[in-house]
Design a protein that fits this description.
Tetracycline Repressor, domain 2, 2 domains, 0% strand, elongated, disordered N terminus
């Protein structure tokens, strides 16, 4: 592939950032590809080379947001290793991403649009929901005897819900992100609650 045709990662990121701002300000239906190209300081030809339509651009933003959480997907339970350490590692894989302003900006935009469009909501939910990773961690820990859990699905929802209650949902309204200190406190208290509810004596 020649240089003139090769994808430019920084240019693509520039367009996505501009699209997030445009979608947030105007809404998906009223957003303009012309204005997005202006915001991104690229020609319309360049914009359409990367993204053929608004729908394609929206899907790309959802995928970019999903890719940011790749570190969460890579974490697996390790038999015999201290459960608090493993829960902390999983929680921080999520927490570090939630401390990125661009991630919160993308999440705010995606959520605002999925509320208006059920089809977009269904497609985005499948790519962005990481609850199953938390469920699998807790189920495997229970199978290994480090936790006592009858309903891993509910426990996983509770775990990720504790983190998002402080580190995600309030930020969707404000656009802010938690500080390192506040995220540490949020993760520590979330793990304390999970271990208090589901821990064995050895893991408390």
């Amino acid at each position: 592939m020649s240089d003139c045709c090769a994808p430019n990662a920084s240019k693509q990121a520039q367009i996505i950032e501009a699209a997030v701002a445009e979608f947030q300000e105007k809404g998906f239906a009223s957003a303009s590809m012309d204005r997005i190209s202006t915001r991104a300081e690229v020609s319309k030809r360049t914009l359409y080379k990367y993204f053929e339509s608004k729908e394609n651009l929206f899907r790309s933003i959802v995928m970019e947001l999903s890719n940011r959480f790749a570190a969460v997907r890579d974490i697996r339970y390790q038999p015999g290793r201290d459960i608090r350490e493993q829960l902390t590692e999983l929680a921080w894989a999520e927490g570090r991403i939630l401390m990125m302003p661009e991630v919160i900006a993308m999440a705010r935009m995606v959520i605002s649009e999925t509320l208006r469009n059920p089809e977009m909501a269904a497609a985005a939910q499948g790519k962005l929901d990481k609850t199953s990773i938390f469920v699998t961690m807790l189920k495997d820990a229970a199978d290994d005897g480090q936790l006592q859990i009858e309903d891993p699905e509910r426990a996983g929802q509770e775990f990720i819900g504790l983190i998002k209650a402080k580190a995600f949902w309030p930020m969707i309204f404000t656009g802010d992100v938690l500080s390192q200190e506040d995220m540490t406190a949020t993760i520590d208290s979330s793990i304390d609650l999970i271990l208090s509810r589901y821990g064995t004596r050895a893991s408390d």
